[in-house]
From TrEMBL:
Residues 470-676 form the Peptidase S9 prolyl oligopeptidase catalytic domain. PANTHER family: PEPTIDASE S9 PROLYL OLIGOPEPTIDASE, PEPTIDASE S9 PROLYL OLIGOPEPTIDASE CATALYTIC DOMAIN-CONTAINING PROTEIN. It comes from Goekera deserti. One of its GO terms (molecular function) is serine-type peptidase activity. It holds the Pfam family Peptidase_S9. Residues 1-53 are annotated as: Disordered. One of its GO terms (biological process) is proteolysis. This is S9 family peptidase. Coiled coil: none annotated.
């Protein structure tokens, strides 16, 4: 139930349209341009919070926006993926040649997006100028030669889009190593089969690994003698327990390198990567955090770098990379420093040093000779594709962020805060958030008035917040809202103990933390306690609904975007990847049915007397529309003011520009009616109907 986060790996980054390269600038110059200076503070008009006029409109949020996905280096060329809302959310493959020319390698209307695990990632790969990708329309594997139309490699399945491919890698013989997901006409999650396969250039397929409930990260060693992969079984998610297996292709023998549940505690392994010498590098959480390890065939696993915080993250999508292995033995990983991250270089002798770069979040790392190419972003920079010379730290922007045309004074900078929360038997008694203050150089608050608070609840729930520029957050802060993006217990980035603090407590610990955040900020005199709202998507929507039904009076309004209302319905009807997710978060299913019923917001819907806006995709398979319909029906029956927008053609998360705008402006209009402020007339926002 993950929701999209910026600068993540896979297709979950927020970026924009652009081309060409530039020297690496300071972050505020990278994404904004100077405009007419704002009035001096004494001259600014005083306006009620929420009604502040702003250039950060929903049109600006989606204008030329693009999500940046995986990055690949192919000889002297650099490739990356862009998800473009203005083109119906299709994912385009983009190629940058050494002379700086940037071209769309994948012509419209082709869409390189896989539905394996429903969240996708790893939908394409490239070698020697030839790309292979999974087409979203039919989920078949296609080949794309330079200047040609894509050609299907795999046969059309009997069940439309019933055979899907992800985590693609091309071998020396032109075959494609992939994870294949095969669906049954029954439509049942239990009948879906996940395997590692090799697809020959003529489309013939050999099954290499079958049997585990899930597999990922198939990788051949450089000499072609060994195959590694990750596997895990229900009811585990890959961040609970995943096993790293290596098979000798000479004799078929297999060796478990790390991970799984065979030891004294569960261990999660992510992102195995071979270096040129045949050493296998990976991240594992055996020390509490996802730290860096390596294994040489015939030897023991060695701890290489424990940064004290998670270096890697949860595997919601395929194709993630938080590690770059340079040919000269240097290793580059992102490590947390202060409120963000720095690229840390490990020299062959084990010494460490950081690269001084004007960015705070890094993803999709890949080596390019003596350099690293990655996606980078920061509090004042939307994601860019960046090349960094590891020896000197010299950086070049290969794909700049869009020019927002804003003075930097418009941008609210986040503050990382840690606050006390309700203790439970997890032993974790604090939570975290990024707090964005209201920021608008053209107006000031009415004397004596505190700003309304918008608490953001991220999806997952096994996920986390990042200190990157998101215009969808600045949309609120520039209008006079304080925004708190909460890393409740169960979030990633703080180690396994913090992550596991939500096990068996979803709907309790997360609710306590968002409530504690709102109360803490109110006690600090930073927000108006009478005008606190909470909003979230997917799993975050569940927390919103649970907070409104179990803690009435804390929040004066809420917004649920494709949120979970009925845990029982979710357990009985969702896709394979998450079909046993709730066994850990709530209770074993179906033995714990009573717990599911008690934790479900729909069970307590009679207590819901807080105005609520509901936004839903009509084709959502992760959280089906029936969940939203249950909530809306209850609101209607209870006579509670509410708004409901159902978006045809949308799935889990909104990808189309017009729908992103409608949801954002609709939510603002909803709060304006509930909190009693005027919408800026210049934007022409049509008020959303309250029912």
């Amino acid at each position: 139930m993950s929701s999209e986060r910026p600068c993540s790996d896979g297709n979950r980054a927020a970026g924009a349209d652009g081309a060409g390269g530039a020297a690496c600038p300071p972050p505020t110059v990278d994404t904004v341009t100077a405009s007419t200076p704002a009035p001096s503070p004494d001259d600014r008009p005083a306006l009620p919070h929420g009604s502040w006029p702003t250039p950060i409109t929903s049109e600006l949020v989606v204008r030329a926006a693009a999500g940046l996905g995986e990055v690949a280096v192919d000889g002297a060329d650099v490739w990356w993926a862009e998800s473009r809302p203005a083109e119906g959310g299709r994912t385009v493959l983009v190629r940058r040649s050494p002379d700086g020319a940037v071209t769309d390698a994948l012509p419209a209307p082709w869409n390189a997006r896989t539905r394996v695990h429903e969240y996708g990632g790893g939908a394409w790969t490239v070698r020697d100028g030839v790309a292979w990708f999974t087409s979203f329309a039919d989920q078949r594997l296609h080949r794309l030669d330079a200047g040609a139309e894509p050609v299907a490699v795999t046969a059309e399945p009997e069940l439309p889009a019933g055979v899907r491919f992800a985590d693609l890698r091309v071998g020396d013989d032109g075959s494609v190593l992939a994870v294949r997901e095969t669906h049954s006409p029954t439509g049942a999650a239990a009948d879906v089969v996940n395997e590692v396969v090799s697809v020959a250039p003529d489309g013939s397929t050999e099954v290499l690994v079958t049997g585990p409930d899930f597999v990922s990260d198939p990788r051949l060693s450089p000499d072609g003698q060994r195959l590694c992969w990750l596997q895990w079984e229900h009811p585990d998610m890959p961040w609970d327990s995943a096993t790293l297996v290596v098979r000798s292709l000479a004799d078929g023998s297999e060796h478990v390198v790390a991970g799984g549940r065979s030891g004294g505690r569960a261990e999660s392994v992510v992102q195995p990567t071979w270096d040129d010498e045949g050493t296998l590098w990976f991240f594992a959480d055996r020390t509490d955090v996802w730290a860096l390890y390596r294994w040489r065939p015939g030897g023991d696993v060695e701890l290489v770098l424990d940064a004290g915080t998670d270096i890697a993250g949860p595997q919601w999508v395929f194709g993630q990379s938080r590690l770059a292995l340079l040919p000269d033995g240097r290793v580059v990983v992102p490590c947390r420093a202060g409120d963000g991250e720095r690229l840390t270089v490990r020299e062959p002798d084990g010494t460490l040093h950081d690269l001084d770069l004007p960015y705070a979040v890094f993803g999709s790392l890949t080596a390019a000779g003596t350099a690293v190419v990655c996606v980078a972003a920061g509090p004042t920079s939307e994601p860019v594709v960046l090349r960094v010379e590891v020896g000197t730290g010299a950086a070049e922007v290969l794909r700049p962020a869009r020019d927002l045309g804003l003075d930097p004074a418009w941008l609210s900078r986040p503050e990382h805060v840690t606050f006390p929360t309700e203790p439970d038997d997890s032993g974790v008694g604090e939570a975290h958030a990024l707090v964005y203050p209201p920021t608008n150089p053209g107006v000031r608050a009415v004397d004596g008035h505190l700003p309304p608070l918008l608490v953001l609840v991220h999806g997952g729930p096994t996920s986390g917040v990042q200190a990157t520029l998101r215009t969808a957050v600045q949309y609120w802060t520039s209008r006079g809202f304080t925004v708190a993006d909460v890393d409740y217990r169960g979030s990633t980035g703080y180690g396994r103990r913090y992550r596991d603090a939500l096990q068996g407590r979803w709907g309790l610990a997360d609710v306590a933390d968002v409530v504690a955040c709102a109360r803490w900020l109110a006690e600090q005199g930073r927000v108006d306690p009478a005008r606190c709202a909470v909003r979230g998507g997917s799993a975050g929507g569940f927390t919103v609904l649970a907070a409104l039904t179990s803690r009435p009076g804390v929040f004066a309004a809420g917004a649920s975007l494709y949120g979970v209302a009925d845990l029982t319905a979710l357990a009985e009807d969702t896709h394979k990847f998450e079909s046993r997710y709730l066994d850990g978060l709530v209770a074993p299913w179906p033995e714990g049915r009573d717990v599911y019923t008690e934790r479900s917001p729909i069970t307590h819907i009679a207590a819901l007397d807080t105005p609520l806006a509901v936004f839903q995709g009509e084709e959502d398979r992760v959280v089906p529309p029936a969940q939203a319909e249950l909530v809306v029906a209850a609101l209607r029956a209870n006579g509670v003011p509410h708004a409901y927008l159902l978006f045809p053609g949308e799935q889990h998360g909104f990808r189309r520009a017009e729908n992103i705008r409608a949801a954002l402006d609709g939510e603002l209009s909803f709060y304006a009616q509930v909190f009693g402020f005027d919408l800026p007339a210049a934007e022409g926002i049509e008020p959303i109907p309250l029912r």
